[in-house]
UniProtKB/TrEMBL annotation:
Coiled-coil region: none
GO terms assigned for molecular function: GTPase binding
Family annotation (InterPro entries): Dilute_dom, Vascular_dev_regulator
SMART domains referenced in this protein's UniProt entry, alphabetically: DIL
Upper classification of the organism: Eukaryota, Metazoa, Chordata, Craniata, Vertebrata
Pfam families in alphabetical order: DIL (PF01843)
Name of the featured protein: MYO5B protein
Domain (Dilute): residue spans on this chain: 1-126
Amino acid sequence: VQQVFKQLFYMINAVALNNLLLRKDVCSWSTGMQLRFNISQLEEWLRGKNLQQSGAAQTLEPLIQAAQLLQLKKKTSEDAEAICSLCTSLTTQQIVKILNLYTPVNEFEERVTVAFIRDIQMHLQERNDPPQLLLDFKHMFPVLFPFNPSSITMDSIHLPASLNLEFLHKV
């Protein structure tokens, strides 16, 4: 059950983050607030179902960081440093793409300046990020089956003749 929800939450993360990276109309402060609220509801549901050890919440980390990125101030060099230290699960390319797509919804917000985006890129130039922008939503985590040793010893097993396993011999 834990593995199923980890996979499901990864898919939610990948599809939502990919939509954020591809659609200018959703890159805003209010979308960041809405995403963070929805993610907290998912995390609360996991706690309520006692699934916090499943790793499902950790798969949402890139989406959480993207939501926080949409909500942070984006003006000074200190803001750039804060963004770089906060967004460790996002690649440089993803951070820059979200900042380029950021669209103010009202007159109180301002567009992200080109100078600020260059400042972010300078701070993150040492990172060795993979070159892909979008997450692979078809990624599958390996299924792990726990090993439960049997209490039955091998020499107590009787193999019926109807199985046609004469080639097996007890040692």
